[in-house]
Every structure is written in C-alpha cells, then in structure tokens.
Design goal:
With about 200 residues, chain A is an all-alpha fold. Chain A is about 75% helix and about 0% strand. Chain A is built from twelve helices and no strands. Classes of the chains: A mainly alpha (about 200), B mainly alpha (about 350).
Chain lengths: ~200, ~350
C-alpha cells in the first residue's frame, strides 16, 4: 500500500500537465496535489500582486484550484495549463475587486494590507526593501486592468498574446494597458524632471 | 505626433521586446541620437529593474491543506508511520516528561559509551533543578546513528510521544520467542555553536536541501538565508546547497527562492552561485526561474563580476532568440552589453 502510493506520487512528478489533466478529466483527482505544487507559487504571487491583499490571494489561489478540478472538462489539452489557471484566477480576482466592500478606497487602505518591508523580506538590503515598498505603492495606483497586464508581463513573463487570452481582450488592448502602466510606474518610481515630486506624492 | 513622442510611446513595448523589428531598429537609432529620449529610455529601464526588486512571496502552507480538504483529498501521510500510544497509566509520567523536554530540549540524549541507555527520571523536580540536559563528549557524536540493542537495554517508558516510522518486524525463527523490531524514531537534539562551526554549517545545508522535512520549515530556512548572507559567515557549502536546490528542486517556487538566496550571498562564494545560475538559465523549464536567473547574472555583471567564456556564450545564445521567453532574451542582451571587453 505504502509503496504503491509512493510510486504513484513519484510517477506523477514525471507526467506532463496534459497527462495530469487527462487523469483529472477521467474523474480521478489524485494529481491535484502535484498540479498545485507546480503552479500554486505563480498563481498565488499573481493574485497577491493583483489584489494587494494576502488573505484574498489565499482565497483566490485555493478557489482557482478547486475550479480547476470542478471544470476540468473545459480545459483544452492543446492550451497551456498555466494560461488556463491564470484565466481562472484573474476572473476570481476581478470578481473580488468588483465587490464594493472589498475595493480599496485609497492608498492608505493599501498600506494596511501590504506587509512591511521587514516583515516581508528581512534579509534584503535596505535599498531593496525601500524599492519593494515603492513598487508596491506604485502598483496600487494602477487600474486593475493595467495592474493585471503589467504583473503578468513583468512578473510572470507571459507574452501579450497569452495576457490577452487571460484578460479576455485584444493584444492591442494589452499593449495599451502595459504602456499606460509603465508610464505610471516610471513617474511614481523615478519622478520626472518636471513634476516628479508631485507624482511621488500621489502614491505616498 | 513628433518623432520623440512616437518613440517614447514605444519604449514600454521595447522593454518587453514587443515592437516589430523595423520599429525596434528605428527606435534604437532615435534613442542613440536624441539626448532627451535617451534619458527617458534609461528611466524606463531603471523602472523595469526596480520593479524586479519585488521578491516572490511563499504560499502559506494552510492554503494547500484547505484546498485538498475542500477537494475531498486527504493530505497523504506516510503509510509506515505508526503513531505511538501511551498506556493510560503512564500519562502523568509523559506529561511531566513533556515539560522537561520542552524546557530542556534534550530528548533521548544517552551516553553512547554507556552500556545501556539511561532513562531520564521524569519528575517535575528535574525541571527546576536542571532545565537543560547537556552532554559533552570527547569524540564528536553522530546525530544520525544506528543502534542495535537488546530489549532489556531499553526502558519500557517512552516519553515525549515520539514518531515511529519505517517499522519492520522480523520473526526469523518461529520456534524461539525472539522477534526483531526495527524502526526509525524521532528524537530531539539541541546543538549550540557558531554559524561557522562545521557541524552547524552542515546542519544548515541539510535543512536547505531537505526543507520538506524541516519543521518549522520557514523559520529554519529564513535563518539560514539571513545568517549566511552576512559576509562574515560566507560559506561555499551553503552556496552549494542553495545551488543544488536551484538545479534540482521539483518546485518552481523553491527554485525561484534559491535564485534570490544565491543572489544575496557574499561575493566570496560567487563561483557556485554563478555556475548554478547559468545551469538554471540553460535548463530550467520554467520561464519565471530563467527570468530570475538571468536577472541575477545581469546584476553580477553590473557589480563588476567577470564571467567565464561558457557563461558569456550561454548569455549570447539566450539573447539570440534561443530562449522562448522575450524577457529572458532582453535581460541576456542587457547583461552582454554590460560586459567590458
């Protein structure tokens, strides 16, 4: 019994995403743990950056994998599993943000939900921790659509075509969102020759 | 729209290599010839780099537990773990022993030179009289030893609710009344030393490479990371342990964390760091890990590190469309552009 279970777990590590999903689609949820181990890190980090709230990101991550099992038959084996998982997660995050009670009212709310620099990464240099906070604040200023696009592009390395699929919009729209987001990020992080201080004040 | 406006509009897209080849070329030409746009481009590049200072966040363990529970999948427990149950009559002894163990942190510490394991008297008096049970040996002790003992060498009282696993029962000769029981049993050790003591370094390396079994995992790993990023504690064995985690761990989150940890190590242990990063850049199937690795290599170059020919060749191949991920290609090109001839 024990050997059999261990072998099954070991074998799953060598299966492709498509093979694991085929098992799930056949009604056997035993690959769930392996799929979770492979992608929960990326899914959680995406949700955390998108929502700026650890608790909500935990809920979104958990719910995304539940939906993956529940709606496994909707998964098209030719697509990347990550793209599908990001789509599910993005939908959950958008639903969360749509609920008026959960929407941060201003940047002060954001600061409440974000971990402090020492709390998040105590071993990093002072400069890195400072930058970390500045980036968190700057991301908070973006619209949800811009933040979704820039987080998937910058932190998950997805192509604009993949982001368009996840966001349910055209590639052109993704380019515009990333452009606007980067403009805002640049102003917030670098300041500008004219008005740089003003921009920084907006996000602090 | 002036040429400068058009070029600036394309800059965010240039960062992610999303411009078509013709427009990319024109944009670069303009940036080289226009001082204002050149400054603007530098600002974008720096913004992009600062954005990279957001570290990966670890998924809290309870999320997986909740997911598996909600999905109706019980977390798998090792099948060969036999929970140890105390007879009710010994409950009070065990409670007292638990206090002793929690306070002193020394469980099952026997003198291996003694003929028999000495049982620790489990009374509350021990707590006040001697909260810490320390042992001092002339010869170094092994903390992972194998013992073969006769039954009468072991006290029948098991204290501290140890976990027993990997149990084998062999009754070799049915005609006699002898049986052999073999098992692994958890024990509690408390080791005091400096981060530079070889045994502490080795324990730390073991924790890194076996973090699945380390409890509490996060604190232990965090301590190793913080302690050995201090130049005073630079140790190639720790760098090698992170490197092995980067190149061998099956979980991408752990590999990404390993890149971050390697990047924070002091320059004195740069060789295993660089080798592991280049291996990850060449072979890691996950683009997020390759992104982190190429960023770390680019940072090494920026800080003045000299890269060997293999590393430079790998960066060149990655920059020249070999990597499927555009960001990896851009960062590889950036690292190459910073290498001094």
């Amino acid at each position: 019994m024990s050997t059999s279970n261990q072998r099954e777990t070991g074998e799953m590590k060598h299966l492709s995403d498509q093979e694991l999903m085929a098992i799930v689609q056949a009604g056997d949820n035993s690959p769930a743990s392996e799929i979770y181990d492979r992608y929960s890190g990326r899914i959680y980090n995406f949700a955390f950056r998108f929502l700026r709230n650890a608790e909500a990101a935990e809920d979104a991550t958990q719910e995304a994998f539940i939906k993956m099992l529940k709606y496994s038959n909707q998964y098209n084996g030719t697509a990347k599993l990550t793209t599908w998982l990001f789509s599910i997660t993005a939908n959950l995050c958008r639903d969360y943000l749509r609920k008026a009670d959960n929407r941060p009212k201003d940047s002060d709310d954001v600061l409440i939900t974000l971990p402090g620099p020492d709390e998040l990464s105590p071993d990093r240099s002072f400069e890195q921790r400072e930058n970390e906070q500045r980036v968190q604040r700057a991301l908070a200023v973006l619209t949800a659509e811009q933040r979704e696009a820039v987080v998937l592009s910058r932190y998950q390395g997805l192509s604009y075509a993949e982001i368009a699929q996840i966001a349910g919009c055209s590639e052109g729209a993704v380019k515009t969102r990333v452009f606007r987001a980067m403009e805002t990020m640049k102003r917030a992080l670098m300041g500008e020759a004219s008005g740089g201080d003003r921009c920084l004040n907006v996000v602090q | 729209m002036s040429e400068c406006s058009a070029v600036r509009e394309g800059m965010p897209l240039l960062l992610t290599e999303s411009l078509d080849a013709n427009r990319r070329e024109l944009t670069h030409q303009h940036i080289e010839s226009c001082g204002l746009c050149s400054a603007e481009w530098e600002a974008y590049r720096e913004t992009w780099a600062i954005m990279g200072d957001l570290p990966e966040v670890a998924v809290p363990a309870q999320v997986k537990e909740a997911f598996l529970q909600k999905a109706g999948i019980a977390p798998k427990q090792a099948d060969n773990v036999v929970p140890f149950r105390r007879p009710p009559a010994f409950k009070w002894i065990a409670q007292a022993a638990a206090v002793v163990i929690l306070a002193g942190g020394s469980y099952f510490l026997g003198d291996r030179n003694a003929d028999r394991i000495q049982t620790m008297p489990a009374t509350l008096n021990n707590v006040t009289a001697s909260p810490f049970n320390t042992v001092s040996h002339q010869e170094p002790m092994s903390i992972a030893e194998t013992r073969v003992l006769d039954a009468d060498a072991i006290s029948p009282e098991f204290e501290g609710r140890p976990n027993i696993s990997n149990v084998q029962i062999i009754d070799g000769d049915a005609s006699d009344d002898k049986v052999v029981i073999s098992f692994d049993i958890s024990s509690k050790w408390t080791v005091t030393g400096s981060p530079n003591d070889k045994s502490i370094v080795r324990l730390s390396s073991y924790m890194i490479e076996n973090e699945e079994t380390v409890t509490p995992r996060a604190n232990a790993i965090e301590w190793v990371r913080r302690t050995y990023s201090d130049p005073a504690n630079a140790n190639p064995e720790i760098a090698t342990a992170w490197a092995r985690q980067l190149n061998n761990d099956s979980h991408e989150g752990a590999r990404i964390r390993a890149v971050e940890n390697l990047t924070n190590l002091p320059p004195a242990v740069a060789t295993p760091t660089r080798d592991a990063l280049i291996t990850a850049l060449q072979n890691d199937p996950n683009p997020a890990v390759r992104m982190k690795a190429v960023e770390a290599l680019a940072n090494l170059v920026r800080s003045g590190a000299v890269l060997d020919k293999t590393t430079v060749d790998t960066l060149r191949r990655k920059a020249m469309q070999q990597d499927e991920n555009q960001y990896v290609r851009v960062k590889a090109a950036e690292a190459l552009s910073n290498i001094k001839p």
